[in-house]
Amino acid sequence: MAVVREYLHAEQLAAVTPWSADAIEKMVRRGTLQRGVHYFQPHGRGTKLIFKWSAIVMLIESGMGVGAATGRSPESGKVIDVEKATTGLRRLLAG
């Protein structure tokens, strides 16, 4: 296996993980990939994200990142209907 650099841009990360660049972007927006843990922006907001390979590996191996961008549950492999779950939760909270 080739050696992977510790810090990667999204395109490079997509090349060495099961995720596409779009999926990585979604995981950033949803908070699955966290600033200061999984990625950094050393040149400030609005610049390219730099991903830390060791933190990404830990995320993948923990199962937390599996399916995060696809809406699939890592435990069951089932597709999660987020809108339906949100509606049900709101109904329960409204009492």
Element order: H for helix, E for strand: EHHEEHH
Q: Beta fraction of the residues?
A: 5-15%
What share of residues is helical? 40-55%
Lateral strand order in the biggest sheet: 1-3-2
Which parts are unreliable, with pLDDT below 50 for 5 consecutive residues or more? 68-76
**Count of β-strands:** 3
Structural class by sheet pairing and helices = mainly alpha
Q: Report the total helices.
A: 4
- What is the CA-CA span between the terminal residues? 54 Å
Give average pLDDT, whole number.
Answer: 81
Provide a compact summary of the structure.
This protein is mostly helical and 95 residues long. It contains 4 helices and 3 strands; from the N terminus they run E-H-H-E-E-H-H. The chain is elongated and about 55 Å long.
What features would you describe in this structure?
This protein has 95 residues and is mostly helical. Helix content is 42%, strand content 7%. It contains four helices and three strands. A three-stranded antiparallel beta sheet has the order 1-3-2. The radius of gyration is 16 Å and the shape is elongated. The protein starts with 6 loop residues before the first strand and ends with a helix. The model is unreliable at 68-76 (pLDDT under 50).
